[in-house]
Amino acid sequence: MTHRVVVTGWGVVSSIGQTAATFWDSLSKGVSGIAESTFVPPEQLGNKVVAEIKNFEPTKHFEERQLIMLDRVSQIAVVAAREAIAQSGISFENGLSERTATIIGTGIGGQTTVDDNYKRVYGQNAKRLHPLVIPKLMANAPASQISMDRGLRGPAFAISSACASSTHAIGVAYQLVRFGVAECAVTGGSEACITYGTMKGWEALRVTAPDTCRPFSRDRKGLVLGEGAAVVVLETLENAKKRSANILGEIVGFGMSADAADLLSPDEGGMVRAIEGALNDAKLSSSDVQYINAHGTGTAANDDTETKALKRAFGNRAHQIAISSNKSMVGHSLGAAGALEFVATLMTLKEQVAPPTINYLGPDPNCDLDYVPNEARDMKIDAAISNSFAFGGLNAVLAVKRA
Question: pLDDT tens digit string along 237-266?
Fold first, then answer.
């Protein structure tokens, strides 16, 4: 027996809003979270812009004794999860906690803890470190901390597949609920990767932009590193209706693929297989989809290849679909990107507004689709997909319908 799976809660901590409501308000208005770094002195960086969560105050959310155990990546994950669960109004009593999965995607886990302690060991010749360094930096820490914070006793684990991590996490959670392995899931992604070491590493790849992120635009110069967390509550349609929950959207399909081609260069064929996998799983035709939340990193290679993949997957219909990249506002939050974009896609359907791709200067010869340039668009949207295409050739796509 299979179940229809719906979303009944969402929570967001991002560079453009530290709640879901403020996130959507900024996203729909085209507000950018990209600015010079305050975490890393700009003079230490070649490319100085990032999308930081500004003025996040951990002590407003956690007691001091708790913070000893929580890297920033776990802090923002727990805050997003609390918001999602509160909005959902779900109670985990009467055994539901044992039937609730906690699945969180992250690309690199507790990077602040890693960076700070490498500095102490190699830069300051420290002989001893804090005994909780390892639990703080583990990639599974956000999932574990959410499960402990909310008392969730079902399957709990992390998924790490670079920039597709949280889309994979949501997709796997969807499958668990769909096939009755879990009755409910708290799922999404978190990343807090803006550190000196991480920034220098990304600079070395020569894919970061010196000014801002311009997905699909002419004169785009690369991606902008960001951070953030987004978490959703999934449950069966039957249970959501039984408790008169506010249904925010329905997941109807999930597609995955591997390029098996190149560690860094995206492959059109892999993208197409993931997109078609999600559409086939959802039993959607190309004519059923009105909106695509693109991976849209702002790099030459990704945007060219994603455009080609969309043309192959949707044919001539690709030119009639509204496409936007949230990374133009929130940057690329690596393992959390898919979760932030999934929530944005659900909000797009709920509000019937396609958010813009900002910083757009005009069409690139290789990117000639409708990228909703610079201003949001009111439009009828019944079905959409959200794309995530990661380094390593790891692709994941979610298909959703309006509630």
Answer: 999 999 999 999 999 999 999 999 999 999
Phi then psi for 377, rounded to 5 degrees?
Answer: -135, 125
Look at the block and give the residue holding tokens 């892999």. 270
Whole-number Å distance between alpha carbons of 375 and 164: 27
Put the strands of the sheet holding 100-105 in their side by side order: 156-159, 100-105, 184-191, 228-236, 5-13, 249-258, 394-401, 383-390, 291-293, 322-324
What sign results for the dihedral spanned by CA atoms 87, 161, 209, 298? Answer: negative
What is the identity of the amino acid at 46?
Answer: G
At 166, list the tokens: 């949280």
pTM strictly above 0.85: yes
Antiparallel, parallel or unpaired: β 228-236 and 156-159: unpaired
pLDDT tens column, 302-338: 999 999 999 999 999 999 999 999 999 999 999 999 9
Query: Rounded to the nearest 10 degrees, what angle do helices 268-282 and 300-314 cross at?
Result: 40
Active site residues: 163, 295, 332
Distance CA 297, CA 308 (A): 15
Q: Which residues contact 359 (CB under 8 A, 6 or more apart)?
A: 32, 212, 213, 214, 217, 328, 374
Q: Which of 272, 102, 240 is nearest to 170 (CA)?
A: 102
Domains of the chain: 5-242 (3.40.47.10), 253-401 (3.40.47.10)
| 352 token code pair | 């019937």
Tokens of 301: 């290679």
Find residue 291's DSSP bridge partners.
322, 384
- Write the DSSP symbol of residue 192: -
Distances (CA, A) of 297 to 23, 53, 83, 86, 137: 19, 19, 27, 32, 26
Contact 146, 77 (CB under 8 A): yes
The torsion of the CA quartet 93, 94, 99, 101, rounded to 10 degrees, works out to: 0
Strands 100-105 and 156-159: parallel
